Amino acid sequence: MILASLVETAWNAIVTHRMRSFLTMLGMVIGVAAVILMLAIGQGAQAMVREAISAMGSNLFIILSGASTSSGARVASGTTPTLTFDDADAIAQLPEVRAAAPVVSGQAQLIYNGVNWSTSVFGTTPDYAIVRGWDMAAGGFFSEADVRAGARVAVIGAVVARELFGDEDPVGKVIRIKQAPFEVIGVLAPKGQSLDGRDQDDTVMVPITSAQQKIFSNAIRNRARFIMVQAVSDKVMDRAETAITELLRSRHRIGERMEDDFTVRNLTAIAETQAQATQVMSYLLGAIAAVSLVVGGIGIMNIMLVSVTERTREIGIRMAIGARRRDILMQFLIEALTLSLIGCGIGLALGVGGAWLVANLSGIKVVVSSAAIALAVGVAFAVGVFFGFYPARRAAALDPIEALRSQ
Amino acid sequence: MDALIEVKDLEKDYRTAAGVFPALRGVSLTIAAGEFVAIMGASGSGKSTFMNLLGCLDRPTRGTYHLHGIDVGRMSADALAALRNREIGFVFQGFNLLPRLTALENVALPLVYSGMGKPARRARAQEMLARVGLAERGQHTPLQLSGGQQQRVAIARALAARPKIIFADEPTGNLDTETSRQVMDLFAALNRDDGITIVLVTHEPDIAEYARRRIRFRDGRVIEDTESPA
């Protein structure tokens, strides 16, 4: 029997029972839509994490003041500032390290022209921009000379620029940070959200010296809240971590049995772990959705079995006039396959449409990949063949005389 | 005379809950090409079992059946299907048309299984509909046709693959006297003009009158085999 007439026969059977065909497909439709939507959301989350990682900068360590435990009692890192600016300079001299930037930070009120805005202020060195990979949208970053001189200059993030200046050009304007006047010399290019969900563009950066003198004047002199370190490459990350730890232990005169008064965290490793977690999550969502595809397949098998019983006489007639067993087998197999592929098509449309809606209504990032579509179509095809085969084989195994006799 | 059908010591047993039931108990006969045969007998006489065997829908328990010199008893189910498709046309008491297909599509159906292309199928089906006098009814579905018309569509379907033999099982059982006469005239014409061998199962004597040869069954055996003079 020719494929064209098989498909035509299948199509006629489907169209004749429109409502039943639709209900049969529904399981498939929901399954495929769920797979597409879940994978889109999962892959969207992955893409977001990847973007956040590349925005964070590569091969990063953050060194926090204080240990995670102290004399058995757990204290939050950074509560007692034990890291000095000189520690940062010493770390920067290590061969495994490209740059190290000490940071003091805190919340502060900004005022420009009667408008005020509360944001996080970072006092640091020009190395910070290098380490974190910050680009400039306008103007420039402050220099080593600014740091040495304690210059009252500031670089502002995109969000601060928008909130304080609107359409105005911020470069050259003077803002007040905790009442102290600072000249804006640059605007940072936007980076978006960080991995922990903070808006990285809602920030102001000033020379670390000026920050200590004018903004965080209560803080202990020459003590950093944390030091941001970039290794020369991803291959030396472990060596760099050991070297930094040894260097700080000797500089802080920590005895062999004593605990560190600082914590070194490999930010890149943490980010990668998070990326892997999102990936696993994404696969998990897809796998759960795939279960509904299997359920959809069972629905198709169910109806095909009913259909074979109902059309026993038709099968008998077809056999009498010359249909071979494989002709009957193919007829019902193609019918099941057509049902599942049409269901898959509708499910695809719903899934892609649903992903679009999610993206536009909730702002969650979604990615509909061609791989996800290929996967859904492939699984739908496999399910159609797998669950269509048993009813089709039952039809083909009928005895023509018995079949002709049935009503 | 050329033997189209040759059966020897044909036996068929059915297994039932009550045990083995012998439906045919040794039938031997030959039917030549171009004959018009009526098979008669009461229900349970074995005539339907015999028809199913002759029509290659079933295989004998014992004995041999040669169709065109081919030993049918040894053929696989698929080979039998191909043989039915090529050599045999069936006409049933209940017409057995597919209700969702048009008359034309019903007639063309056997050709689908012989692998003929769609345009050729339609042309042949149209030709056969014309042969049974229903050229104008091709687009009607069975439910839009009268019983006599449906049976003629079924005859056109039996003719579609140009078989040498037509098996008709009580073809007038569901028809009134007038339409029965028309259908039987059509069989007679096919036999006379086209040389198609016709084997007819019936229990009505006046229908059997159309055939030149009458074979009567009782209890799974042939008890009478008579031929009217040509």
Textual characterization of the structure:
The complex is a heterodimer of chains A (407) and B (230). Chain A has 407 residues and is α+β, with helices and mostly antiparallel strands. Chain A is built from 13 helices and 14 strands. In chain A, strand 2 (69-70) and strand 3 (73-74) form a beta hairpin. Chain B is an alpha/beta fold and 230 residues long. Chain B has a domain at 3-98 and 167-227: 3-Layer(aba) Sandwich (Rossmann fold). Chain B is 34% helix and 30% strand. Chain B is built from 7 helices and 10 strands. In chain B, the strands form 2 sheets. A 6-stranded mixed β-sheet of chain B has the order 6-7-8-3-9-10, sandwiched between helices. The model of chain B has no long low-confidence stretch (mean pLDDT 91). The chains are: A alpha+beta (407), B alpha/beta (230). Chains A and B meet through helix 1, helix 10, helix 11 and helix 13 of A and helix 2 and helix 3 of B.
Give structural attributes.
heterodimer, A: 407 residues, 2 domains, 6-stranded mixed β-barrel, 13 helices, 14 strands, B: 230 residues, alpha/beta, Rossmann fold, 4-stranded antiparallel beta sheet, 10 strands, 34% helix
Oligomer state equals heterodimer
Low-pLDDT segments, ≥5 res of chain A: none
Distance between the termini of chain A: 26 Å
How many individual β-strands of chain A?
A: 14
Major sheet summary line of chain A = 6 strands, mixed, barrel
Spatial sequence of strands, sheet with the most strands of chain B: 6-7-8-3-9-10
CATH topology of one domain in chain B: Rossmann fold
Which spans of chain B have pLDDT < 50 for at least 5 consecutive residues?
A: none
Radius of gyration of chain B (Å): 17 Å
What general outline of chain B do the C-alpha atoms trace? globular
Give the SSE string of chain A. Answer: HHEEEEHEEHEHEHEEEHEEHEHHHHH
> Looking at this structure, what is the CATH superfamily of one domain in chain B?
P-loop containing nucleotide triphosphate hydrolases
Sheet bearing the most strands of chain B, described? 6 strands, mixed
